[in-house]
Design a protein that fits this description.
heterodimer; A: alpha/beta; 3-stranded antiparallel sheet; B: mainly alpha; 5-stranded mixed sheet
Chain lengths: 301, 765
Amino acid sequence: MRTALCVLILALASYAAAASTVVIVEGLGGNDHYTAQFAEQVEAIAAAARTLAPQPELALFRGDDATRQAIVDFFAALGDRRATTDQLIVYLIGHGSYDDHEYKFNLAGPDLTDADILAALDRVPAASQIIVNTSSASGAAADRWQSDSRVVITATRSGVERHATRFGAHFAAALSDPAADTDKNEIVTALEAFDFADRRVRDFFETSGQLATEHAKIIGDRAARVSLARLGAARPASDDARLTELIAKRDAISARIEALRSERDTMSADEYQSRLLGVMLELAQAEEAIELREAELLPDD
Amino acid sequence: MTERVLLTLVAVAVVWDVQARPIHYGAVADAALAECDRLSWRGQNREARPCYRDILASSAPGAIRAEAAWALKDLHTANRLFQAANQNNPGDADILSRWGDLYADTHQDAEAMDIYREALAADANHAFAMLGAARVLVGGFDDAANRYLEPLLTNATLPEGAQVGAWLLVARIALENHDVDEARHNIAKAEALIARNDWPPLEAYALRAALDLIDDAGDGRWTEMSLDYNPTYGNIYAIPAHFYVISRRYRDAIDLYQKAVDIEPGLAAAHEELGVNLLRDNQIDRARRHLEIAHDEDPFSPVAVNTLRLLDSLSDFPLIRDPEVPEPGGAGLPIVLRLHREEAATIAPYAIDLTRRSIEEFSTRYRYELEEPVIIEMYPDHEDFAVRTAGMPGIGILGATFGYVVAMDSPSARSTDEFQWGTTLWHEMAHVFTLEASDHRVPRWFSEGVSVFEEWQSGPTPGVRIPMPVYSAIRDGKLLPVATLDQGFIRPSYPEQVIVSYMQAGLICQYIGQHYGTDKLAALLSKFADGLNTVDAIASVLEVTTPQLDRDFDEFLAAEHGPVLAILDEWHRAHAELSKLAAEENWTAVVEAAERLIEMHPRYVEPDSAYLPLAQAHEALGARQGAIDTLELFWRRGGYDPRSLKQLAAWLDEAGRADDAIRVLHTVTFVQPLDEELHVTLGRLLLERGEGAGALREFEIALAQNPHDKASAHYRVAEAHRAIGNIDESRSHLLMALDVAPGYRPAQRLLLELMRGASNDTINH
């Protein structure tokens, strides 16, 4: 058997240290255009996964190695070694089909069925799971895959939407586009990526005047808490007391901002603006002080 | 309510109720019914109503009782009785024919046609069934009507009532074609038969009155004679009013329709037309009142229902006035926009600018100052625009001008392949001038011609753009003489004739502009305002006969477009070959094929033009400069494909030609304004060039599109405000950005910078 190991990229030195696993499956393109498109999306998603800290275990199934059996075997093995505190992120990039009974993700050889995928996800006892299926007809299986610990994102809202989708390209682009990071914390969450891609798809159909052939769907309420990519460089860890103090001060101001936002409805717009200005200036000054201290701590060249 | 008032209302109701059934000219032969009809057609409605009631309650044949129910406006009963009569008398063409008339009278043309066919299957020579079928087909602009009309107009042995109907129908068609002599002849034919049979001459009088109005001879004696015959015959005004509508004299039509409903308050069609035309004059509330009456009187009419539904949706279209408050002593009229609330903030700035530019341009060229504010309406749903324009969905036009009111598709209503909203607005604004400067007397061809000519010459994406099927029509000799060019718009005789007529009219105006000078276009407009027709106006202004102008125009076409006309077939073959090569990504071959196509027809810049694959091929072969040059040429010749132009702008910016990139992106705003990325890019370029006000406009438009990344959108607006010194506004938008994203460092930095700047200013003071 050509094991999945040959396509497994070990991002960390050992499985034991991995906090999360990212699995990316690239389906059959069917022609040069889609093959190139899917490859590009897979590479963008893999690159995004590598920006996360701590880095996840990254498993890529592409080309001849993207077979039903290899994928089923991989999840079985993963399920045996994963603890319930872990996170699992699965991407299915390709074409799908639905015959009014069964959804299939198109691979070389036997396709992955919706039941295969559900069984694979259920085998992994991760506390947090997310599956992003960008294929045509992907909405057919969305409801079946949902669970309390799982976020399901599909490019279509049902199996009836059978045209090749645009959603995947925008979702992949979201993972490196600052415009997707709406709260500007330099992390793109699953919810931010979904919103970004969904909006781009809707804009496309609106501006082109074409009938919308896909409507993306998200199920599960944890998407805002799942990080899919980091846009900026991670700040280096430091045991500097001054820096620790400044960060604590910044975090305290952030907490006051959150409190102020929650009280917004209890005050006039002018009062809110006035108080917001005060705390935002404090936060800006605190961030500035942190940046200065970090610069001071940089080793001299 | 007192008894006296109640009686008055009942009396009015009686007057309303017995007028609507059309005069049938002997299609029904029944002595009792004839007596009721005589009373009704004489306007003796108080007497007619009980007369019809008596028949309805009698043991008269079902089909006759159906007629009585119809006259009493009890249409369901009438239908039921006809149905029963048909079942009891299968294959009776007389019954079927009248039943079909009932369906036609209630706007159910397809069902009416089926019944007429059934009647004709039973009796192939049934004259009234042929007449009914012809009426339906004429209403649908279907040439098959001729098959039914021809025997009625040529066979004197057929029932004379059907002949009358046919002559009146062809008289109407002649009037619509402004063929006054033909109309006069046809009416006379009908009148002779009417007189011989002692039928009501009312419809003939109404057509005579229309004839006089078209001739600008007032309504003469015909109205008086009609009112003498029947003082409540509203069609004596409503029928002529229709001819005002089709010649776009909407206010004149409104006056006549008002008179029609004044004397015949139950004339649903006149209320409906009054409502529709009041909308064209922006009299919304008054329009609604009449449309509601129309709907109450004739609940079968889709026009009233559609239009009332549209009016209900107008709450989503807030009015925008610019300026909101007129400047004291300020010159110029405000511009009023009615835009959908989701698009208003994006479209309004461009629409106002473009409208002002057009007014400035056309006021000078056509020597006419507008006297009222222009009202521009844009509908995101094309069918709303269609209903606004004609009361019915399904029309193919992009915009319509009713005088000072312009209605059109909004940029989101159609794909950019088929619609450039800026060009359409420019086209419609030219209509505002040609209509108003001529007091709505301009012939259709000239108004469309000037609009097309202005699109090409001075529009937001200028360039002579002629669709390929039009070239084929020119080559095949399908153009009309200028004297009859209006027919190409009103009653086209082949599928592409309307668009061919648009282009021909534009080319004639271009020819006049080039050969005689554009001041002659203004002079022609002035002659039309004086009431001259095409032949006389051309003779007066250009001092040539229209046949001579046609010959001169042919020479102009040969000189300007002859080379293209000579290679049309070859061009089509080469175009197909290019598409194949591009699909195969055979870029070297694409370059060769595309260059050849462009050489054959350099002006062809539609989205399937050769410029785009040529640019793509250059880029694929690593020749960026070639790609830029190609797209730049495409743009300068009027190309508007937004994706290609955005690519060109990006390349120009990279090449250090930001000013050109800005100009290219401005073109895109007239095609695809609802594109957030476009405004962000344009705003950034403008900000970098130090044009803070322009940048602010673009960033505000981007923000108005409810962007996904609101923090960045507010931040950009804040940057632009700061660039033009609006510190308070800048701070306000920074706070909005930070409210969404508190940790947004660029916004934090700018906020600190602003606050420190303000603090320094305070210290310095």
